[in-house]
Design brief:
The protein is α+β, with helices and mostly antiparallel strands. The protein is built from two helices and three strands, in the order αβββα. A hairpin with a 5-residue loop joins strand 1 and strand 2. The radius of gyration is 24 Å and the shape is elongated. Keywords: Electron transport, Membrane, Mitochondrion, Mitochondrion inner membrane, Respiratory chain, Transport, Ubiquinone.
Length: 136
């Protein structure tokens, strides 16, 4: 199917507002059925009529500056094709919030000032030479 035909078909299905939103944040237009929403507000979609394999599931993040760590583990398994049933249909994944989980999302801090930095607690085997100039 040509790109123009696919674009016009998706524009007719999802409307101008959603078309603009997807082009700005996803970079592609997709039309499908809403499978579920997680506790962070991300929406998960699926379209089994898609012509390319492994491109039938996608997520629409709530935040404009999204981070893949905002996916819950059950939804990550579903969107990565590790499981067939979404967490809304799986009894084990419907347990909700667990006691050991953080109450709110903590973002991935890699490449930021708050990222973890290693340091050494051992003394170096040698020290740098610091020249001392004798007075004249």
């Amino acid at each position: 199917m040509s790109t123009i035909v696919r674009t016009l078909r998706n524009l007719r299905r999802i409307g101008f507002k959603e078309y603009g939103h997807q082009m700005q944040y996803i970079g592609d237009t997709k039309a499908g059925t809403l499978i579920g929403t997680d506790r962070y507000g991300n929406k998960y979609f699926e379209n089994m009529e898609e012509e390319l394999p492994l491109r039938t599931r996608w997520v629409d993040y709530k935040e404009k500056e999204y981070d893949p760590s905002q996916l819950e583990p059950g939804w990550h398994a579903w969107i990565s094709y590790l499981v067939d049933a979404p967490p809304t249909a799986d009894k084990l994944m419907q347990t909700g919030h667990r006691n050991w989980e953080l109450p709110e999302h903590r973002p991935n801090l890699t490449l930021s000032r708050a990222a973890f930095k290693t340091y050494s607690t051992t003394r170096p085997k040698y020290s740098a030479w610091e020249p001392v100039a004798a007075p004249r």
